[in-house]
Structures are given as structure tokens and as C-alpha cells.
Amino acid sequence: MAVNLVVKVHPVVLFQIADSYERRSADNHRVIGTLVGSVDKQCVEITNCFCIPHKEYEERVEADIVYAQEMFELNKKVAPHEALVGWFATGSEITSHSALIHDYYARETKDPIHLTLDTTLSTGRLTMKAYVFVPLGVPGATTGSMFTPVKVELIASEPEVAGMDLLHKTKYSKVRSVEPVPELTKIAEAADKMEIMLDAVLKYVEAVLAGREEPDSSVGRALNDLVQSVPKMDPDQFESMLNSNLRDLLMVVYLSQLTKTQLQLNEKLSMVSVNNIREMAKLLPPTE
User: Fold this and answer.
1) How far apart are CA 60 and CA 275, in angstroms?
2) Do the strands 83-90 and 113-117 form a parallel or antiparallel pair, or are they unpaired?
3) What is the predicted pLDDT for the residue at 143?
4) What is the reported pLDDT for 34?
């Protein structure tokens, strides 16, 4: 596999690895597991993972291969589009057992990725690295292989970003928990955040035009793409579209609240009916 590969990791993968590390047995100093996702040319996207029970000794590694295969088959039933792309291990370094484990995954899939995650926070942060196994040596002579690092990025879809924003609010909460906010509150927060970002963009553009800051061509191209992506419409059309979407949102909120009230009312009526049946059963003479 080429070393110019890019590995993209979703947040749920990091959460699952950290959770597996916290739940590991006392005699294990690290955890390993399978990575699943998709491969597209020079990009590997890791969307999910699961831990594999294992034990490491000085000269060998024992892993539950049957469990790994069963978990992968179950994952295929839930997400048939996800394929096996590699394996992970906690820690910041490649160990002597990594080649043995990688050899198993190399038999299961072509060019597996090896992802390491420093869950001990030895550097003060959650360090993540990705590797590919590259052959070395001269053909017909002594050959070998080594783990070569490749570029790794953290990406997130829109639902994952919303979940991360909600989790981030617990960072400054004493109870370490937070309730989901209503839809209208989300819109208000998004509008405030967008206003702050637009102010930052305007200050940057004004500083460049005034000569107080050096222009950056990459930023300029990004701003041009941003402006071109905005649909061209007059203010009346935009206001009409916004009001239409707002009315739809209010209708959805109203219907959800109405459904919630109906379910609560039905639950209370069911409890009253059950209590009435019990009272009537007490008044009936016992059957012989």
C-alpha cells in the first residue's frame, strides 16, 4: 500500500477504543480490536470498531479469533457497507507483538491499517497514529517489512458534530450530564455561532484589504467557494423560504408535543383501568 495514504477516523471509533481500555481486565496493559469502514483509492475511512479479547506473553500472543470473526459477521448484518480495514491497539508505540497481530489481519484483508491510540495521555493529549506495513529489502536477497506512518485525520458527519457539541457542554458542568436542547434553541445557537464566524471573516478580509495582514491564497479560495455556494435570491424570496421552513419546524415540534401528551394520557388511563379491575376483583366472591 502507498505511503501517501490518508486515514480518516470518526469520533465514535475513539470513544469505543477508550471505553474498551477503561473496561479491560486487570492483567492486560493494552487492548486490541478490529477496524471497519471503507476504502476509496488513497483514502481509508474508519467508521466503527470492536475490541477482541487477547493475552500477550513474552514470545507469543493469544487472541480470540472466533470471537473476532463472529463480531465482524454481526457487524456486516447491521452495516453491510462496512468492510474490514485494519486493527487498532492502545499505546503510543509499536511493540514486538504488533507484527504477529498484523499478520493475521493481512490474511483477512488486503493492506490492513494499524491504528494506535495513546489512552494513557502521556503527552497530555489523545495521540493517534496510523501505519501501513511496507516491505523492505532487495528482491532475491534479504527482505523484511516495517510499519510506516501515514497521514491520519479526524472527521465527523453532521449528526456526529451535533453529538460532540452536546458532549462538549458536559466539560464545564459539575453534574457531568446535559439534556438535549429543543430544536428552536439549536437554531438560535447555530445562528449566533454563524454570526461570530462571519464577523471573524469580515475582520480578516478588511485586514487584508487594508494591508495589515498578509493574504493567504488557500483562505481566499475557501471564501470564494463559500460565496459561490450561497444561492442567489432576492431578500423577499429568502424571507419566504425561511418562514416556510420555520412553520414546518414549528408544526413538527407541535405534533411531537401533542404525541407525547397523548402517550402520557394513555398511560394514566391504563393505570386507572388496571386499578379499577383490581378493586372490582376484590368485591367479587372467591371462586371455589
Assistant:
1) 64
2) parallel
3) 63
4) 93
Helix, strand, or coil (residue 255): helix
Note whether 108 and 84 are within 8 A (CB). yes
How far is the C-alpha of 182 from the C-alpha of 160, rounded, in Å? Answer: 17
Question: In sequence order, what are the residues at sequence separation of 6 or more whose Cβ sits closer than 8 angstroms to the Cβ of residue 84?
Answer: 34, 35, 36, 72, 105, 108, 109, 112
Per residue in 252-282, pLDDT (tens digit) is 888 888 998 988 888 888 888 877 777 777 7
Q: Which of 131, 90, 86, 129 is nearest to 106 (CA)?
A: 86
First to last CA, the chain: 82
Return the C-alpha cell found at 251: 408544526
- Cell of residue 115, nine digits: 491504528
What's the CA gap between 34 and 28, in Å, rounded?
Answer: 17
Instruction: Quickly tell me which residue has 479526524 as its cell.
Output: 154
Could you tell me which residues come within 8 angstroms of residue 32 by beta carbon, excluding any fewer than 6 positions away?
Answer: 51, 52, 54, 63, 87, 88, 89, 90, 101
Site of grid cell 475511512? 45
Report the alpha-carbon distance of residue 240 to residue 249 in Å, rounded.
Answer: 14
User: Is the overall model pTM greater than 0.70, yes or no?
Assistant: no
User: Taking 80 as the threshold, does the pLDDT of residue 142 lie above it?
Assistant: no
